[in-house]
Write a structure and sequence with these properties.
about 0% strand, about 475 residues, about 85% helix, globular
Length: about 475
Amino acid sequence: MGSLPTHQQSESMGNISRVERLSTEKIGKLLWEMSSQTTFSLLVYAIYSITDTYFLSIGINSLAAAGSSIVSPVLIALGGVATIVGVGGASLVSRRLGEHDTEQASRTVANTFLIFWVAAIAITIFGSLFIKPIVYLLGATEAIAPYAVVYGRIIFLGAITSTGFSTIIRADGSIKYSTAIWIIPVVTNAILSWLFVMVLKIGVAGAALATVAGQAISAGMSVYFFFFKRNRSYQIKAAYFKPNKAIIGEVLLIGLPSFLKSLSASLIVVVTNNLLKLAGGDSALAIYAIVGKLYAALNMPQTGITQGMQPLVGYNFGQKRLERVRQTIALSLKTSVVYGTFVCGLSMLIPAALISLLSKEAAIIAEGQVALRLLSLSFPVSGLALMVATFFQSVGRAKEALSITLGSIILVKLPVLLIASRLFGLNGIWASEAVSELFLSVMVLIMLRRFQGKALAMETLAYGNAP
């Protein structure tokens, strides 16, 4: 008679069962579960972002809100560093768990920590030393620069706390914890932002301190999860922190498209800020600070769908369940288009009501309506390029994901932005996003269809050769 399982064995069996759900339950149910959790987390973050902008705009002025917006490429770049290890690590972890190789999953997580810490420390030192020239390079005017310098310096100093590795936590099947690691810090962040800006009157420094405080809580929660929480699919040992060239190389290669996506997004924001400074000065930058935050917040659910899709694709691909992979990407794309169409209609119908959530200045509300309407034309297709790139990352096809990312910035977004701004001025800048996303969606859907055709042929050949 076999012995009864120990408590530790029972926990391990429970974790395996939780992860294996990704290959057994209905795709729609799993996608809804994962996407709703990640979308809720992202929406909470969006609410914080909107609230933070509101406090700066109402508590100080629109130039203060523009100052924090000017520094947004820094936050995007920091997010890119977190993403390169998060997406790369999550893809590798998902596949290793699908193969039941928990030791390699553990080594992967340990090495992602090493990559991030080295990069974050370097960013902190560089940003703190050169903050003044950086904010002018980012597009600040003389009136906005003082706010941007104060805000940016604090953000750089807090770079080491700028991720909680929620993507890797989600790859373990710990959906609730990956949600909590967003919600708890963001709620804390919003409360502190209100306290520091509206009550204690610390100014833009208060908003920046609140941001870093929220990040620190997220980082602390991730340390607890990876090193102290027992109910996980793998355990990280001290020896696993020894740099592993193969793991680091694969994590960086797979995560590179996401990093370049963030970097390209930063570049687009920098170019946009400088074009707006030339075309409309302080007022145009203030409108962009408000409308840009609103646009990003309305885009969050599409990002949530993408993040919810990633572990499903990675795990099932690792188990060679290609039909489930195809069903997942098809359902994700359809859901993204439906949601995008809905928020496009909403933005067209009530732009003033949406903008008034972030600003009470009549000029911002009046002039911002045109900007929001033109930007909203991109919503129906704005999630497709990101989703297909994430799909390729999840199946280990870094080359395709990289080509989408580089193509989006070099061949599409920058040229369209520059040409549209030159031909149509401010309206051209606002409309360039929709034109770019339309071109990109056509390109990535063609790439996806070709890849799926090749995968189907390989699957058919494999079954045909089976004994």
